[in-house]
Amino acid sequence: MKLIFEIGAEGRGLSLLPECDVPETKLPEGLARESKLHLPQVSENEISRHYTQLAERTHGVNNGFYPLGSCTMKYNPKVNEDAAAQKGFRRVHPLQNESSVQGSLEVMKLASDMLGEICGMDAFTLQPAAGAHGEFTGLLLIKSYHTDRGDDKRTKIIVPDSAHGTNPASAAMCGYDVVSIPSAEDGCVDLEALKAAVGDDTAGLMLTNPNTVGLFDKNILEITRIVHEAGGLCYYDGANLNAVMGQARPGDMGFDCVHVNLHKTFSTPHGGGGPGSGPVGCKDFLAPFLPGYQVVGDAVTGFHYTMADKSMGAVKQFNGNFLVIVRALTYILTLGKEGIPEASANAVLNANYMRVKLAEKYDMAYDATCMHEFVMDLGEMKHKTGVSALDVAKALLDYGFHPPTMYFPLIVHEALMVEPCETEPREVMDDFINALLEIADKSESDPEMLHTAPHHTVIGRPDEVGAARNPVVKYNWED
Questions:
Q1: Could you tell me which of 17, 56, 309, 332 has the fewest CB atoms within 10 Å of its CB?
Q2: Residue 22 DSSP SS3
């Protein structure tokens, strides 16, 4: 497929923008570019075809099953888009007078309150723009708390070895030393290792529950107790909240703050370079340190902004990505008090259905009832047949499926991690299961075919290492 710069011809064009309705102003001397601005010269027909072809090569939840473990690629209801497209939300400006945006302020207040109820938290900030940004904000809350008390000796954050890679990165960005603790044989936190790691230098613990191998840690209350008794705080990575929303709350598990990936649990689109959102909730004692402005008030007295007493400042402009908040609130209100726990229950049901079916021919990393996702260990398959997790993932492309997450978590060396979400029907899961079972048979009868898969896609196996190390990110014009 040609790049857009490689189609069209000199002089072609189209009119997409209305005529300028304000006086034109030339740039000051020295600010104008000296070289020609290279833009594609294409007709409307050419540009329409080009982007249609690009869309046809893109796989998303609207195209088919997207079983990325640890990512919760669930369907994005179109009612969310309708709500976010309302003129009253779409055309507001964050610097408008509060009296003219009461509806938008009510959305933020309602979203904060409902997220607090779901997570068991007392206050929320909507500023963070993504999950990792939420991690960073939550850790800054912990740091602000310790600093405010003059407890500067707490320099370490404890992170399990199965954590998302952003956890240690966020801790390091906040200036903390990261202490990694191993998982026990059951895939959960090793309590003895945790006890040995905590001390008067422990600032906090970062933990995902259910964890990255899809298991709800049976010792979760003991884990948070150990950290609290050492004087540290407990941070909940909300990446896997889709498995427990409406069933269990991080605040009731002993966590002091939490981030929520709205694009995972609450059905807003994943970023992909666009808007994400990672609101952060906390208990009352951390609320004075929240960033930015919170919305207070009610429909009778009116809504307005307020700044926390000891606020850390702002982590993003204004109140984050507002229209993403609108989408998430629409989802929450659509499901309601009964629908939210039903969604999480169905996510767990789907995952366990697939896990049991696939266990006929695939080894499970942890042979136990999972939550929203499960991890297959292809180590024995690779040893016996030479077929790796990568080979299986590539072979799935020939069946029309997006592969699951590969080689994560790192504690399972030949890992494939599958998360079906609650939005997939049984027929789709059965098709995916049957494809994997056929691939398992082919690993023994024709492993070479799997080594060279995929065979029916636009491209085969690109040089991924070369692309990562030597990316071509711009078009080179001959002139």
A1: 17
A2: coil
* Number of separate domains in the chain: 2
Give the pLDDT confidence of 421-478 residue by residue, as tens digits.
Answer: 999 999 999 999 999 999 999 999 999 999 999 999 998 999 989 999 999 888 887 7
At residue 202, the 3 state secondary structure works out as strand
Listing DSSP states for 218-281 in one string gives TTHHHHHHHHHHTT-EEEEEETTGGGTTTT--GGGGT-SEEEE-HHHHT-PPP-TTS-----EE
For residue 312, give the DSSP letter.
-
Instruction: For 172-185, give the DSSP string.
Output: HHTTPEEEEE-B-T
Phi, then psi, of 259 in degrees rounded to 5 = -110, 150
Using CA atoms, how far apart are residues 414 and 278, in angstroms rounded to an integer? 30
Tokens for 211, please give them: 């964890």
**What's the rounded Cα separation, in Å, for the pair 445 and 361?**
14
- Whether the ω angle into residue 447 lies within 30 degrees of 0, i.e. cis, is no
DSSP state of 307: E
The answer to whether 236 and 249 are in contact (CB under 8 A) is: no
Question: What whole-number distance in Å separates Cα of residue 451 and Cα of residue 382?
Answer: 11
CATH number at residue 360: 3.90.1150.10
For 407: left if phi > 0, alpha if psi spans -120 to 50, otherwise beta; the answer is left
Angle formed at CA 78 by CA 73 and CA 83, multiple of 5 degrees = 120
pLDDT digits (tens, 9 = 90+) for 71-127: 899 999 999 999 999 999 999 998 999 999 999 999 999 999 999 999 999 999 999
296 and 350 both lie in a single domain? no
Question: Quick one: the chain helix, strand, coil %, rounded to 5?
Answer: 40, 10, 45
* DSSP letters spanning 365-389: SS-S--SS-EEEE-HHHHHHH---H
Instruction: Give me the domain span that covers residue 358.
Output: 339-463
CA distances, 230 to each of 51, 197, 258 (Å): 56, 10, 20
Q: How far is CA 343 from CA 172, 247, 379, in A?
A: 35, 10, 33
Q: How many helices (H) and strands (E) does the chain have?
A: 15, 12
- Spatial contact of 124 and 254, defined as CB atoms under 8 Å apart: no
Domain end among 335, 369, 396: 335
Task: Give the pairing of strands 415-418 and 374-377.
Answer: antiparallel
